[in-house]
Amino acid sequence: VLTTSSGNHAQAVALAARLHGTTAVVLMPEDAPANKRAATEGYGAEVVTFDRYTTDREELTAQVAEERGLPVLHAYDDPHVIAGQGTVALELLEDAGDLDVLLVCLGGGGLIAGCSLTAKALNPNLAVVGVEPAERPAARRALEAGEPVKVPVARTIADGQQTASIGRRNHALIAEHVDMVVGVPDDAIVDAMTFLFERVKTVVEPSGASALAALLSGQVDAEGRRVGVTLSGGNVDAARFASLVSRAAR
Amino acid sequence: VLTTSSGNHAQAVALAARLHGTTAVVLMPEDAPANKRAATEGYGAEVVTFDRYTTDREELTAQVAEERGLPVLHAYDDPHVIAGQGTVALELLEDAGDLDVLLVCLGGGGLIAGCSLTAKALNPNLAVVGVEPAERPAARRALEAGEPVKVPVARTIADGQQTASIGRRNHALIAEHVDMVVGVPDDAIVDAMTFLFERVKTVVEPSGASALAALLSGQVDAEGRRVGVTLSGGNVDAARFASLVSRAAR
Description:
Two copies of one chain form a homodimer. Chain A has helices spanning about 10-20, 35-40, 55-70, 80-95, 110-120, 140-145, 170-175, 185-200, 210-215, 240-250; strands at about 1-5, 25-30, 45-50, 100-105, 125-135, 180-185, 225-230. Chain A is an alpha/beta fold. In chain A, the strands form two sheets. Chain A has a four-stranded parallel β-sheet, with helices on both faces. The N and C termini of chain A lie far apart (about 45 Å).
C-alpha cells in the first residue's frame, strides 16, 4: 500500500500494514520531523521523501502508485479514514457529556470531516469550528469557492497542516457540517503548546495544538459555554519541542 | 502556616492556605526549579529560600516557626499528609484493578508511606517497592539501621528527593509495609523522562519519573507481572526539561 503523509497517518499505515503482513511505502516531506520518520520506519515502512515546497503531492503519489503498482490509501480524502477519525468526537462526547462548541484541528480535513459528522448526528446544535494555520487558508478559501482550492504551501510550524488543499470528500462534509473555520498564527500555537506543557503536563505537536490555540487566543466565544478541543498528535522532536516551549515559557 | 518543601508540597500548602483565608510561609531550597517557586508565589505564599547543601532544614524550620509564631505543616512526616497521599494507590488500584507490584517514588517518604498502607490493606500480597535516587540512600540506610538516618545531601537531578532523611512516621510505615527500596542513577531517570515524553507524551519531573526509571532499567522483576508505577510531579522548567530530554532523545 502507498500513502503520502507528513507523519502521523504514515505511522498508522505502517503499523497497520505490518499487522496485516504486508508492507507500506510512505511518501513523506523531506523536512518532516525526524521522529515521525524514525517511527514510521520503525514500523517497517519504506519512506521516500520529497520537497513539499516544490512537489505536487497528488501528482507524485499517482506517479509512484503506477510505477510500483501499489494501491493508494489517502491520508484524509478517504471515507474509512474519515469514519475512523470521527470516533474522536464520539469518544469525547461520551466522556465529557454534551458540549456547546467543538474545536477541531484542520489540515487535509479528515479529522474535522469525521468529527463534524459525528457531532452533528448526536447534537445538531453543537457548533463545530475548524482551526487551520493562519498562513494556510485552504479550508477558508474552499468554503468561499464552494470547492477545494489549492493555496501556496505555507511556512508554519504546524507541519501536519501544510497540505496545499483539503480533500474533495472532506470539503463536502465540512461545507455541510462545520459552522466556522478560523486561522491561528504560529505564536498562538506555541503559546498553546506551552500552556499544555506547563499546566496539563502534556506534549502536543504544533498542528495538534492549533485548536486549543484558537480558544486561548480568543478567536472563539467561549464565555459560559462548554467547549471541547481536540489535541491531535504529539510527534514533535525533543529538540524542536524544547526550543519552541523554552522560548515561550515565562 | 509554615512549611518546608522543594516545591510540590509548597504549592499545595500555598493554595490550601489561600482557600482557607490565611497565608503560608514556605522555606524552599534556593536552587528549587524556578517554576515551582513562581507557582508557589502565584498562589499567594511568601517564599524564603535557603541553601540545601549547608542548612539543616529541620533546624531552620523550627527556628522560623518560633520567630514568627507559625504552626508547622510538615511536607511528609505528618499523618494527614500520609493519608492524603495514600489515595494515590487507592485511585490507581480502583482504576487498574489488582496489581502484583507497585513502584512508588520515595523522597521524604510521604507518598510511599500512604501508598504502601493503602496497598497492603487492599492486598497483602501486593509487593510495594520504593525508589529513591542512587546517590541518596536515606531510606535504604534507615531500613538497615531501624530508624531514620541522615545522609549527605545528594547531588542528583531529582530535586524532590534530595531530603537528607526520611521522616519518623514514614520510616515506621515503610519498615512495616514496603518490601524493598532500590536506588536509581540520574541517567536512568533521564531515560524514563524521555520515554514518557516520546511515547506517553507526558511531562514528568525527575523525582516523579524515578519509579518508572527503576522499572525500565530492569531493577525490578516485572516479567509476567502486573506492575503499577507512580508518576508524581510535572514541575520542571521548560529549559531544564528540554536540555535533559533533548540530550537523551535518539
